[in-house]
Amino acid sequence: MSTRLHHLISLAHLDRACLTRLLDRADRMRDASLHGTRKLDLLHGRTVLNLFFEPSTRTRTSFELAARRLGADVVNFDIARSSTNKGETLLDTLHTLEAMHLDAIIVRHRETGTPEFMVRHAMSGVSVVNAGDGNHAHPTQGLLDALTIRQHRPDFSQLTVTICGDIRHSRVARSDIHALTTLGVRELRLCGPESLLPDAHEVPQGHFTEDFDAAVEGADVVIMLRLQKERMAATLLPDEAAYFERYGLDSARLGRAAPGCLVMHPGPINRGIEIAPEVADGAQSRILEQVGNGVFVRMAVLAEVLGR
């Protein structure tokens, strides 16, 4: 059995046994909490801090619900009213918060490496969970995407998965790629404009293409990524309509995929840019299931790192 985690910074170095254990635990959390309607007391007496230096709807709310449903006390750190606006360094902020005897810090930061920095410099036994750092990693999103896929297609070795959009700058894509390759996905297709694809050496298992029609053909899962509007210039396409024509998932393109293909998106969605409304809201969409699964995955992660 793989060693229990004390922190979760990335999925890059976790083996299949560890990922499977976390996914299995998320399934058990869903059942034990009666799909979130019953509160558990696994973390009674523990304190969890949400430390978000970037805006968030799904992830921050999901972590807060996960901690509360496990019986923990939750503190939401208000960056706008904190001493960070007075010039306090991240290190001083960390040590100040540690002095208040926290058990876990959930951190999101625009700079790659911030969660790892906190792990290295923490003076207490506080657990650190990465809720997204720069372009580097978003491990709980990778887990919840894997869980959503597994609930419908449990044998990863039989799956062709397509990820389309701004993969180069996406921490979600990197964590999805780590999870899917570790779990043994048969074929992983990475699609987007050349300027938004990662370097080939970063994903040696990936099949790269700029042809979205070809990338969707026969796919069992299609994961669409949000196009940040500031990245549009790098695509060499004139506008959002042109991007959608080349890389948007509409009903016609979805028809090229395998029957029952799962449609996924980490949110927030730019409707009509990377995905058509009728697909985002259609029968094959698993987008809201992803959101729901996020709570159970984060319950599993918090219970794991806090040793319960």
Automatic annotation (TrEMBL):
Residues 158-303 form the Aspartate/ornithine carbamoyltransferase Asp/Orn-binding domain. Keywords: Pyrimidine biosynthesis, Transferase. InterPro entries: Asp/Orn_carbamoyltranf_P-bd, Asp/Orn_carbamoylTrfase, Asp/Orn_carbamoylTrfase_sf, Asp_carbamoyltransf, Asp_carbamoyltransf_Asp/Orn-bd. Its EC number is 2.1.3.2. Residues 7-151 form the Aspartate/ornithine carbamoyltransferase carbamoyl-P binding domain. Pfam families: OTCace (PF00185), OTCace_N (PF02729). Pathway: Pyrimidine metabolism; UMP biosynthesis via de novo pathway; (S)-dihydroorotate from bicarbonate: step 2/3. GO terms for biological process: 'de novo' pyrimidine nucleobase biosynthetic process; 'de novo' UMP biosynthetic process; amino acid metabolic process. GO terms for molecular function: amino acid binding; aspartate carbamoyltransferase activity. Catalyzes the condensation of carbamoyl phosphate and aspartate to form carbamoyl aspartate and inorganic phosphate, the committed step in the de novo pyrimidine nucleotide biosynthesis pathway. This is Aspartate carbamoyltransferase. The gene is pyrB.
